[in-house]
Write a structure and sequence with these properties.
By secondary structure, the protein is of the alpha+beta class. The chain is 41% helix and 19% strand. The protein is globular and about 45 Å long. 32% of the residues are buried. This is Large ribosomal subunit protein uL18.
Length: 119
């Protein structure tokens, strides 16, 4: 069996902690993916198995003016919060995957909190 990378071990640890904390009333999950050029966010309802809301820097009005920065991540955080509240979701669990909570990931999380999401 191949040894897991640090990223994969961190991802497993985060996901296990989220499942343990959610208990009987699982909240929708705010899942983040960060690449070298873009950042993506989804609010996923695991109970029903579908995406409630999504936002990313691939959207034309975000991509054209900012690029791959903390400001772009903050804009995505505001957009995901607005889309989630429009869909009726206000409380989520933050699934950062294997990404460390700093830089663009932290900027997105802070903006989502300011936008009205609770986690």
């Amino acid at each position: 069996m191949a040894k897991l990378s640090l990223f994969d071990r961190r991802r497993q640890r985060v996901r296990t902690a989220l499942k343990a904390r959610s208990g009987q009333n699982p909240r929708p999950r705010l899942s983040i993916h960060r690449s070298g050029q873009h950042i993506y966010a989804q609010v996923i309802d695991d109970a029903q198995g579908h995406t409630v809301a999504a936002a990313s820097t691939l959207e034309k009005d975000v991509r054209g003016k900012i690029g791959c920065t903390k400001e772009a991540a903050a804009e995505v955080g505001k957009r995901i919060a607005a889309a989630a509240t429009k869909a009726g979701v206000t409380k989520v669990v933050f699934d950062r995957g294997g990404f460390l909570f700093h830089g663009r990931v932290k900027a997105l999380a802070d903006a989502a909190r300011e936008g009205g999401l609770e986690f």
